[in-house]
Design a protein that fits this description.
With 287 residues, the chain is an all-beta fold. The strands form 10 sheets. The chain has a 5-stranded mixed beta sheet, with no helix packed on it. Strands 17-25-22-21-18 form a 5-stranded mixed beta sheet, with no helix packed on it. It is rod-shaped and about 170 Å long. It is 0% helix and 48% strand.
Length: 287
């Protein structure tokens, strides 16, 4: 089908009374896309008292262009991902197109998804390339790659390494001394480094071996730091050794030889425990 425009007229001879009647119907030579395609016309006829003296020649020499129709790919979505320092987006679903009429057109190729940038964010725009059309009528269409796709890039975990906890002697606190240099290994060429001072804490203040030590205080800096969740050092253990507690307030008395090694003690035995620790002496001293 070709749409016609303008007003159809004829110029009859002399003073003959002849005019056009009917509605012109335009038809391209075929349905396919092309420029300056021949259009044939039918449907006009003559009327008037002198119409019978003429053969009507339908309009000739008409041409027009059939431009490609847009054909959108549907059925594809983009998947969320954890930050990986790339713009790669994973696509899911089956790409389909709905061609006009009985046209034979289908999708070929593997779609390639790309986020607008590599950085963490929600509902980030994903563009798609690499689909194409196949089929006997494919040449009549402009393929529109999937549009309106969005997905989320979530932060990646970044572990602090290079830190250990030192053993200590009991001091009534849960403070743990850390040693080593805190480092992180960011993805790709990302610019990320450690800032802050790590603070180590034993699970409780009491003496014990291989006690768990938790760490806080480190943070990330650098132009790509926002793409990561910092994971403080994990799996650290250290030992709290018992503290020595000296007894005071006791003295030994002189005696006269009695063939034994027994020594008489005097005074009151006391200890001064650390901090607010509750510790006292029990038992009877034997000298």
């Amino acid at each position: 089908a070709a749409t016609l425009s303008g007003t159809a007229t004829v110029s009859a001879l002399g003073s003959d009374v002849v005019s056009i009647t009917g509605t012109g119907v335009g038809a391209f030579s075929d349905k396919n896309v092309g420029t300056n395609k021949v259009v044939t016309v039918t449907g006009y006829s003559l009327t008037g008292s002198d119409a019978g003296n003429y053969n009507l020649i339908q309009p000739t020499g008409l041409t027009a262009t059939i431009s490609k129709a847009d054909l959108s790919v549907t059925g594809v979505s983009a998947s969320n991902k954890t930050y990986d320092a790339t713009t790669i987006a994973t696509l899911s679903g089956t790409a389909t197109v709905s061609a006009l009429g009985s046209d034979v057109v289908s999708v070929t190729g593997t779609g390639v998804g790309a986020f607008s940038d590599k950085n963490v964010g929600t509902n980030k725009v994903v563009t798609v390339t690499s689909y194409s059309l196949t089929g006997s009528d494919a040449g009549n269409y402009n393929l529109i790659q999937p549009t309106g796709l969005t997905a989320t890039i979530s932060k990646a975990n970044l572990n602090v390494a290079g830190v250990s906890a030192s053993n200590k002697t009991y001091d009534t606190t849960t403070a743990a001394t850390l040693s080593g240099t805190a480092t992180v290994s960011a993805l790709g060429s990302d610019v990320v480094s450690i800032t802050g001072t790590g603070v180590g804490t034993f699970s409780n203040k009491n003496a014990g071996t291989n006690k768990a030590v938790t760490v806080t205080g480190y943070s990330l800096t650098g132009s790509d730091a926002g793409n990561y969740n910092l994971v403080q050092p994990t799996g650290l253990t250290a030992t709290i050794n018992k503290a020595d507690l000296s007894m005071a307030g006791v003295s030994a008395s002189n005696k006269t030889y009695d063939t034994t090694t027994a020594a008489t003690l005097s005074g009151t035995a006391t200890v001064s425990a650390l901090g607010s620790d509750v510790v006292s002496i029990t038992g009877t001293g034997v000298g």
